[in-house]
Design goal:
The protein is α+β, with helices and mostly antiparallel strands. It folds into two domains: 3-262, 2-Layer Sandwich (BirA Bifunctional Protein, domain 2), CATH 3.30.930.10; 265-383, no CATH class. It contains 13 helices and 14 strands. Strands 1, 2, 3, 4, 7, 8, 11, 12, 13 and 14 form a ten-stranded mixed β-sheet that branches. Strands 5-6 form a two-stranded antiparallel ribbon. Strands 9-10 form a two-stranded antiparallel sheet. Helix 8 packs across helix 9 and helix 8 runs antiparallel to helix 11 (333-346).
Amino acid sequence: MTYKDFLATIDGYYQKIGLEKWPAAPSFHDGFPGNFNLSLSEYEFLNQNEDFFNLKKDMVYVKNQPCIRHNDFSHIDNPNGDSYRYLLRFTMAPVGGIVWKKDISLKEKETKKAIFNLLNFLTNECNLDKNKIYIQYLKSDKIKVLTEGKYDFNCQIPNDPNLKYYLDFGIPKNNFIPISNRDGLLALNVYGRPTPWGYRNEIFYDYNGKLLDIATFDSLVFQPILDQQNKIINLKLYPYTLVVGAIGVERLLMILNGFKDINDIDLINEPAVVLRPYTDPRSAKQLVQTLRAIQLIIADGGWYKNLGKRRREKMRDFYKFIQKITENNKIPVEVLGKVLVQVADLEPNLPQLEKAIDDTILEYERHKLRMKYIHSWQEHLDELPKNQLF
């Protein structure tokens, strides 16, 4: 199955469950200062509300959200035995829905619906065996234990109350994995901005003898209480209904195609074919992975001059990695452009990619000038490509 075909399946499911599809958030925004977009809903929530604790109106929607996690770059730069499942840029699709409602009495109903929507997609649309689906859940413990000492106040978090819905769906009782840490408790204070806390279920699939995390379900039920110094000192019940259920699109696509490595999906493999005359298969796929991230950032307006210090540091990591591979293998810049063309062709859901091909090449050429001439690089702008290449 191709990525395009799978997106069509996902969009058809959105229509089936009757949820409105919204545009994806840009790859960088104020929801993640210093980082690129890391997850699903921060952009819309903060655009339409001052914070997470004063909901102006109900928000119920879906979208296909690209994410870029710089922490995952280590799996691209220095692959290891676990790197088979990592992409530097990946897509989350909330087939369970993103549901944020004022009416707290709807919590049970919306939680069950979201979990069933998520599991129905996995079993009915993707034909996964429910007997191979495993649910990781939070086991009751004190906040100090669950957060490994980061928060220390007198509060015992109960066991995850949502396991009954997975059992009702038919997930075997033996397929539940208890944990007592922040993988099961969302205890967030994102860049100094408090957010609701709650339960997270990582959903795994038994694939090729390993448990592969393919989806997640979040139920946010607690609200942090702050002291005068904005330190979190306790929790109370969150007054709204907030649940999110999402899949990792590319990981599921890997399973549906029976691949052993996520780099074998068409999004990575087909652009990598362009590089075969110049480099080995692994380096080709590393290069494609990094170019894909840069291309989206540039497409969303992330020129180097538009980025703050921390985002610039991350972009320099990407550029240096590209430069190392291209110079070691003498890959012409025109070939990089052909890779970017292929990336854009494979992702019509992101039309901005095609428009950013020349700009992505231009930004890379500027990086090379900065590396070569340091502070005087702007005196050598005449060395940049004069005309559009693609």
